[in-house]
Specification:
By secondary structure, the protein is an alpha+beta fold. It is built from twelve helices and 24 strands. The mean pLDDT is about 90.
Length: about 450
């Protein structure tokens, strides 16, 4: 199948032209480093373009400087289109944003290309939608070169093939897509709010279960623990180190040169919700005597005590895999006496602490860490074993319902986004008669 199959099926009076015949284009070299004797400017950067379809003055632009020549060459005008020129991923190349508002000091920054349509040939909003259309933009993605970082040669930008209908049709298509994408975006926003409500309900359900139990009529008492507040009167409290063994793992980081040994669980294997993923593991080179005290058992918890981002501290996974596995030192192993404690109850408790921000704000948190000593001194609530198990079962049943609703909502969002992308591609390549669609 040809890369430009769409070009052979354009409506009558539409043309196929290279971008250089419909727009001027320049590659910006304005960096973020302020320089004396240059003009203060606001810089429209890569993230401003990548994360926003439209450039307006409501965005929080970086303060920088530029020479008079750079301001003249790369200053933004209404209806300019900016595209990402360089990226760590080839399919992030050519992502566009349309300039809807500008100012005398707003300048296009580094790693971006500025496209300025010839007004008598190309409408800026139509060009923007063309570059959003995958069948059109894929030309830039495939033209990008590099290994660890990709970039488009300037010549390839100019050589890119575009569909070019008459100007009145370009404007009609752009107006139609503005209306239809706004409608689809509103539907997506509603569904995303539903996701937020489901996530909040999930957190509240788990938090109540692990701090108040399942009986709403249970008599409560003060726990004496500031973060916990009241708990059922028949529950006890204890420091975690008195009910579990807490230990570090193998070293601090993965030795990526190893290709065999004992499978090694690392930080990326524990996701934000505390699930454990074992598809991609490292390896630990351990002798028989070394590995015995470091091997995981079913029922162990793995607690992320150190990470570059404090938001990840406190992620806690439940280990129940078959075979020999160990873990890196940045994951603490928490091991319970399974005849007295249900580890999943304490996993839910630790995940609740992370979700409610405890590890972000506790004074024990230093340099984005919550180490073995701090974790051992953490006071927790302790129901009887049968109640721990009942709470875990209730949480599993109720969250399964919520997770099913979340999955259905996420599928709906994905379908709406697919519909949006397909609509843009169809409109700019003439597969939709905009006048008929409006009628």
């Amino acid at each position: 199948m040809s890369l430009l199959d769409w070009a052979a099926e354009l409506p009558d009076q539409w043309e196929v032209k290279p971008l250089r015949s419909t727009a001027d284009y320049v590659v910006s070299n304005v960096d973020k480093v302020p320089t004396e004797n240059e003009i203060p400017v606001r810089l429209c950067n890569y993230t401003d373009v990548y994360n926003n379809e439209f450039i307006t003055l409501a965005l929080d632009f970086m303060q920088a400087t530029a020479s008079e020549g750079e301001v003249a060459k790369f200053g933004l005008r209404v209806d300019d289109v900016i595209i990402t020129k360089d990226s760590e991923s080839w399919d992030d190349i050519g992502v566009p944003a349309l300039v809807r508002e500008t100012a005398n000091d707003l300048v296009c920054g580094y790693h971006l290309a500025l496209l300025r349509p010839h007004k008598q040939k190309m409408d800026g909003a139509f060009l923007f939608r063309c570059l959003q259309a995958k069948p059109v933009r894929v030309q830039l993605e495939l033209a990008a070169n590099g290994v660890t970082r990709f970039g488009i040669p300037k010549s390839e930008i100019g050589a890119m093939t575009l569909p070019v209908p008459p100007l009145p049709q370009q404007r009609a298509i752009a107006d139609y897509l503005n209306r239809e994408t706004a409608r689809l975006d509103a539907l997506v926003a509603v569904k995303e709010r539903v996701l937020g409500l489901l996530a909040e309900k999930r957190r509240a359900l788990i938090t109540r279960a692990v701090t108040r139990g399942l009986d709403p009529r249970a008599t409560l008492r003060e726990s004496g623990i500031s973060w916990l507040g009241e708990i059922p009167a028949h529950w006890t409290t204890n420091r975690l180190k008195f009910i579990a063994q807490i230990s570090y793992g193998v070293g601090d980081e993965l030795d990526k040169s190893l290709t065999s040994g004992v499978p090694l669980i690392s930080l990326p294997n524990v996701d934000i919700e505390g699930s454990l993923h074992l598809a991609e593991l490292g390896w630990a080179n351990l002798s028989e005597s070394e590995k015995f005290p470091l091997l995981l058992r079913k029922g162990d918890l793995l607690f992320n005590w150190r990470n570059g981002s404090s938001a990840h501290v406190g992620k806690t996974a439940y280990f129940d895999a078959e075979g020999e596995f160990t873990h890196v030192g940045f994951l603490l192993r928490i091991r319970f006496d399974l005849s007295r404690y249900e580890p999943r109850f304490f996993q839910a408790l630790l995940q609740t602490l992370r979700a409610t921000g405890y590890f972000l704000y506790t004074r024990a948190m230093v340099n984005n860490t919550f180490n073995q000593t701090e974790l051992g001194n953490l006071s927790v609530s302790v129901p009887a074993l049968n109640e721990q198990r009942a709470i875990v079962a209730r949480i599993a049943a109720e969250t399964a319902k919520l997770d099913a609703m979340r999955s259905a909502t996420e599928r709906t969002i994905a379908l709406l986004k697919e519909r949006r992308a397909a609509l843009i591609a169809a409109a700019v390549t003439g597969q939709i008669d905009v006048q008929e669609a409006i009628a």
